[in-house]
From TrEMBL:
Described purpose of this protein according to its UniProt entry: Probably part of an ABC transporter complex. Responsible for energy coupling to the transport system. Part of an ABC transporter complex. Responsible for energy coupling to the transport system.
Coiled coil: none
Stated name of the protein: ABC transporter ATP-binding protein
Keywords carried by this UniProt record: ATP-binding, Cell membrane, Membrane, Nucleotide-binding, Translocase, Transmembrane, Transmembrane helix, Transport
Database matches in PANTHER family: ENERGY-COUPLING FACTOR TRANSPORTER ATP-BINDING PROTEIN ECFA1, HEAVY METAL TRANSPORTER
Transmembrane segments: 53-76
Family from the record: Belongs to the ABC transporter superfamily.
This protein's record includes keyword Transmembrane helix: yes
Compartment annotation: Cell membrane
InterPro entries: AAA+_ATPase (IPR003593), ABC_transporter-like_ATP-bd (IPR003439), ABC_transporter-like_CS (IPR017871), ABC_transpr_CbiO/EcfA_su (IPR015856), Co_trans_ATP-bd (IPR005876), ECF_ABC_transporter_ATP-bd (IPR050095), P-loop_NTPase (IPR027417)
Stretches assigned to the ABC transporter domain: 11-241
Membrane topology of this protein: Peripheral membrane protein
């Protein structure tokens, strides 16, 4: 395995181009750098290449042109075990991640598979569940939880691996307003780099000071989330629409 460079950005993507076996070109040379501790929203219409880009971050997809590095570590076969520990992906449907009899076992699965045992494993599980406010549910079957609670447990399964980057796929989808707020509070409290793929533009504005618009396989815009959402011409050009009556200018954006 290559050496990790602790001075490197969390994520560096350079010239990434990728075509699927059927010939569909999904990415046409993406350049993206995300610093440590940044929270960045990845926006764009369906078919823009967002999922293709995300799946390159932990080596699920390979074979493209260009490079991807996490904390200075190239995403390459020789580094995949460490890359997959450092890049945690929380899927849109928590049931894609929760498959064990209890919440505790689900959260323990990743660290246990990496060789962790005993008191160290218990501590790791407890800390991850406390971070998402689900410690009291450790012995519950996941399928007995609400959708919002299952999503928080899915986040905990990734946090238990102490990732460098937390990638969230549509984290606010199907959540009621209270669950949406609870998850936002959790995400703000985490000391981790966040890349959030979302169509929920108010949520992106609330949580991510920076946004990147991916459109037709290229980065079309990269800047402060509020500035991008206020650019009506840019939004229309890339099929991004704010909810009716929502004015991004009315939102006070903090750095936290």
């Amino acid at each position: 395995m290559d050496a990790v460079n602790d001075d490197s950005p969390s994520l560096e993507v350079s010239g990434l181009a990728f075509a699927y076996p059927d010939g569909h070109q999904a990415l046409f040379g993406v350049d993206l750098t995300v610093g440590r501790g940044e929270r960045v929203a990845l926006l764009g219409p369906n078919g823009a290449g967002k999922t293709t880009l995300v799946l390159h971050l932990n080596g699920i997809l390979t074979g493209g042109v260009g490079t991807v590095s996490v904390a200075g570590l190239p995403v390459a076969k020789r580094n995949l075990a460490e890359i997959r520990r450092r890049v945690g992906i929380v899927f849109q449907d928590p049931d894609d991640q929760l498959f064990m009899p209890t919440v505790r076992e689900d959260v323990a699965f990743g660290p246990a598979a990496a060789g962790m045992r005993g008191a160290e494993l218990e501590t790791r599980v407890r800390e991850a569940l406390e971070q998402v406010g689900m410690a009291a549910f450790a012995d519950r079957p996941p399928h007995h939880l609400s959708f919002g609670q299952r999503r928080r447990v899915a986040v905990a399964t990734v946090l238990a691996m102490r990732p460098e980057i937390l990638v969230l796929d549509e984290p606010s989808s199907n959540l009621d307003p209270a669950s949406r707020r609870e998850l936002a509070d959790i995400l703000r409290s985490l000391d981790v780099t966040v890349l959030m793929v979302t169509h929920d533009l108010p949520y992106a504005l609330e949580l991510c000071p920076r946004a990147v618009i991916l459109s037709e396989g290229v980065i079309a815009a990269d800047g402060p989330t509020q500035r991008l959402l206020c650019d009506e011409k840019l939004m229309r050009a890339h099929r991004l629409e704010l909810p009716f009556g929502f004015d991004p200018r009315s939102v006070t954006v903090g750095a936290a």
